[in-house]
Write a structure and sequence with these properties.
The chain has 11 helices and 12 strands. With 284 residues, the chain is α/β, with parallel strands linked by helices. Helix 7 runs parallel beside helix 11.
């Protein structure tokens, strides 16, 4: 096999800096956005990130994955991105864990749009006369990467057009979120609010009906809302345990709840997002 293959025999090789300490969540949360990179793990996720236009910085493989990743290695050769190949024990020492999928890639982030641009109020979308997606999701305080990744996967599967994140939400491109989403974080466009909850005003400016999901008994059952309310709506979901803040609830046109039985007051937020996205999907 030919290509930009560099065999590594030392876990302290400085060329592997992108891959160090992957299990240190706090460090990676700070470092990856600041350096404009993210980690893609496994052949499917690496290919999905490439398919959605994220440039390859480098790749780290064990020897047995060279044939499986031959097409990506060829792309790396065209772009000049190095492909590092090392023994499994060296990869484990560098990353801090056993990489079961055998393939890691350091990818370049793309600039995030502003919420107004994503909703068609500013930038190229507004200039082109686009009005933004019909149904969007808004996540407040999703700090758990697994929940965030699962919610992105449900959003992609059930036709949510875009996702807006509160400032304190976890990073959708963090390795665990990408992995749990099975690469769906690359399928749904998203933006992050700079201010919260005042930033939610952009939803009203864009003509969205803001529906706050809450288990509060004063909220209207989801299945009692007329379907036309979902044609252009923002479905706002809060964090696991705390739910939506008072400010987010006050910014909504209406409070909505999922009807529950058997004395259960709420669902895991990732499960709740799937229910809400399915129940509000277009029926025709």
């Amino acid at each position: 096999m030919t290509g930009p293959i560099v065999r590594i025999g030392d876990a302290d090789d400085p060329r592997l800096t992108d891959y160090t300490n992957l299990t240190d969540v706090e460090l990676r949360r700070r470092r990856e956005p600041a350096e404009g990179l993210f980690m893609a793990e496994g052949d499917k996720v690496i290919r999905r990130s490439l398919d959605t236009g994220h440039p390859l910085r480098s790749m780290l493989l064990t020897e047995r994955w060279l044939d499986t990743m031959a097409d990506v290695v060829a792309l790396a050769a065209e772009s000049g991105a190095p492909v590092y190949v090392a023994a499994p024990e060296i990869v484990e020492r560098v990353t801090g864990y056993h990489v079961h999928r055998g393939a890691l890639a350091s990818m370049q982030r793309k600039p995030l749009p502003e919420p107004a641009e994503l909703l068609g109020l500013a930038g190229p979308s507004a200039a082109a006369g686009q009005t933004g997606p019909g149904r969007i999701a808004v996540f407040e305080g999703f700090v758990d990467h697994a929940n965030l990744g699962a919610a992105f996967r449900s959003a992609a599967a059930l036709g949510i057009g875009a996702i807006l994140l509160s400032p304190d939400c976890a990073d959708p491109l963090y390795r665990r979120a990408v992995k749990v989403s099975m690469g769906a974080v690359f399928s749904v466009p998203y933006a992050r609010f700079a201010e919260w909850p005042s930033g939610l005003a952009v939803l009203r400016d864009a003509g969205y009906r803001v529906l706050a999901m809450t288990p509060d008994e004063r909220a209207k059952p989801l299945d009692e809302l007329p379907p036309e309310q979902f044609e252009r709506c923002a479905l706002v979901l809060g964090s696991e345990g705390h739910g939506l803040s008072r400010g987010a609830l006050d910014a909504a046109h209406e409070w909505v709840r999922i009807p529950m039985a058997a004395g259960i007051d709420s669902l895991n937020v990732a499960a709740a997002s799937a229910v809400v996205f399915y129940a509000t999907r277009p029926k025709s």
